[in-house]
Amino acid sequence: MSCQGATAQPARLHVCSWNIHIGLERHTLLRSIAENAHFADLDLLFLQEASADHDGADTDLIAEVLGPPYAALQRNIDRRQNRIRGLGLIWNPAAINVTEVDLLELPHVRHPNIKRLHRYALTAVRARRRWALTVTAEIGGHTLRAYNVHLNPGAFAYQMEQFQTILRDDEHRAPVDVVVLIGDFNSLRIDRRKWLAWFAELARRGYVNVSEDVDWTFGAFRSRRFLRQKLDNILVKTRWPLEHSAHSQDIPGSDHLPLFARLCWPAS
User: Fold this and answer.
1) Strand partners, 71
2) Which of 51, 113, 167, 224 is most buried per CB count within 10 Å?
């Protein structure tokens, strides 16, 4: 990517999102990160379902594997299968200056905007509370805000209410040059038409679906093509024309695949 038209050094960002399945395959995961060149020059790594135990937090262990100068933080949210589950961030301070990190609570089943029918269904499946890890940072003189999300599966209307909460939060914060929506959206193929319509609506708001051409990011049985799902996504809004590329990589260590993206925009 050349960031054509840039009059000065363009801003470049290499990001990855990975749901690491509460660290159930931690040793394999760490080995994959150490051995795979795709992780070598990451600027930002967003984790969903990061866990922690007596050996430490997943984010800290991964940052150690990536090596200096990577920094890490993790916000633990709940437990699944008797394991801690949270949202994590790993970044390269040489490229990114992280200035603020928050947790944004997303609507739960008893939220007044959730329809009664959906409320009953979600209560039956014991839908858990969800949060978005909100990260404010600076890169190359530009300001960036990223929302690392892991939405509830199923009930598309419920997921949209969670998304609207994120969009409203961004609108009420100080304006930034770049906004990134990234993570495990649980965008099941059964709701494919609804998701396409939602992505089209976001495009009208200025968001680029960076991962649009990625075929799949989840497969508990990866050899069975008909079971593959596209659950993970990256959306970006910038003040300038955006150049981008994205791909998922079938790397062992989780039931999800890591989703990589390279972003480039002209310097102001």
Assistant:
1) 91
2) 51
User: 188 φ, ψ to 5°?
Assistant: -65, 145
Please report the domains of the chain, with CATH numbers, ordered by start residue: 11-265 (3.60.10.10)
Q: Which residue has the higher pLDDT, 185 or 153?
A: 185
The contacts of residue 178 (CB under 8 Å, 6+ apart) are: 139, 142, 143, 144, 145, 236, 237, 238, 239, 265
The three-state secondary structure class of 197 is helix
pTM: 0.92
∠ CA 139-142-143, rounded to 5°: 90
Is pLDDT above 80 for 141?
Answer: yes
Residue 125 has a pLDDT of: 41
Q: How far is CA 3 from CA 11, 70, 134, 260, in A?
A: 9, 26, 27, 18
CA–CA dist 43, 111 (Å, integer)? 36
Predicted local distance difference test score (pLDDT) of residue 127: 61
* 235 contact partners, CB below 8 Å, separation of at least 6: 180, 181, 182, 199, 202, 207, 208, 209, 210
114 contacts: CB under 8 Å, gap ≥ 6: 107, 122, 157, 158, 161
Q: How confident is the model at residue 124 (pLDDT cuts 50, 70, 90)?
A: very low
Give me the long-range contacts of 7-11 (CB less than 8 A, separation at least 24).
Answer: 7/266, 7/267, 8/266, 8/267, 9/140, 9/267, 10/264, 10/265, 10/266, 10/267, 11/139, 11/140, 11/141, 11/142, 11/264, 11/265, 11/266, 11/267
